[in-house]
Amino acid sequence: MMLHFTKMHGLGNDFMVVDLVTQRARLEPERIRALADRRFGIGFDQLLLVEPPSRPDMDFRYRIFNADGSEVENCGNGARCFARFVLDQKLTARREIAVQTAGGNLLLKVADDGRVRVDMGTPRFAPNEIPLTADTQSHDYALDVDGQTVHLDALSMGNPHAVLDVESVAQAPVTTLGPLIEAHPRFPRRVNVGFMEIVSRQQIRLRVFERGVGETLACGTGACAAVVSGIRRGLLDQHVGVTLPGGSLSIEWAGSGQSVIMTGPAERVFDGRIAV
Ligand SMILES: N[C@@H](CCC[C@H](N)C(=O)O)C(=O)O
């Protein structure tokens, strides 16, 4: 049987997107890892599976798998690509789409210019909700990493994020410190690691070492987590532009108990099919 897919990206964070509303397939972790391979497979950071919802008040459910085959709770750039995909495939005519993810429900709006605005839900800070092993909630956790003390903030955007302040993202130890924090035993489900350079109260630069992938060109939930961290520590204003290696996102957060709003592009690259 042939399975149709679409290759998409949000700021260079790239996806294989599969419609499982009109098609049927089961992809095991080993097959996902093979398909994600950039030389022997299709090549992608995440696989997105679009499915019918399990609740009548939702339009779709979508599931997210990292390149290492692990299923995860949330994906910001993926959410925008998902919204463009269901419209382009005519799976819906609605420009306002409610979707279930493993990390919670999201509300997405596709603007006339194709940019997508996503209500990413409320950030969570309690250590057990991240999850992070810690006695008390803080915005400054000290982690022993190979005998060195590293200070970071941590929070959940549905998925777990650590945020480190750096002087310069160009010099940041993303590929050396990133994997050590990603797999640190105090993060029992591993963690996405963001390196944030604050340029002004309305602008940051960010690089993210993603759990289950490695450094990507952009991470939507990572951008939300970094901005939330900066706002809650009094370092950033409510509307912040985030420059990532693959492009820019706009993030807004009005503070405690409020949803984080992310706006950015979503692009289709090509369509293909594989035998399953
Ligand atoms: N690229 C994503 C995040 C994808 C999931 C992440 N790697 C995790 O394991 O939680 C984004 O744009 O948010």
What does the model show?
The chain is α+β, with helices and mostly antiparallel strands and 276 residues long. It folds into 2 domains: 2-121 and 265-275, Diaminopimelate Epimerase, Chain A, domain 1 (Roll), CATH 3.10.310; 127-258, Diaminopimelate Epimerase, Chain A, domain 1, CATH 3.10.310.10. The protein is 16% helix and 42% strand. It contains 4 helices and 18 strands. It has helices at 29-36, 76-88, 174-182, 220-232, and strands at 2-10, 13-19, 46-51, 60-66, 71-72, 96-101, 104-110, 116-119, 141-145, 148-156, 160-165, 192-200, 203-210, 214-216, 239-244, 247-253, 260-264, 267-275. It has an 18-stranded mixed β-sheet that branches. The longest helix is centred in the N-terminal third of the chain and has 13 residues, at 76-88. It is globular and about 55 Å long. 44% of the residues are buried. The mean pLDDT is 97. Bound molecules: ligand LBFN2T5F. Ligand LBFN2T5F binds next to helix 2 and helix 4. Its EC number is 5.1.1.7. It comes from Kushneria pakistanensis. Pfam families: DAP_epimerase (PF01678). Pathway: Amino-acid biosynthesis; L-lysine biosynthesis via DAP pathway; DL-2,6-diaminopimelate from LL-2,6-diaminopimelate: step 1/1.
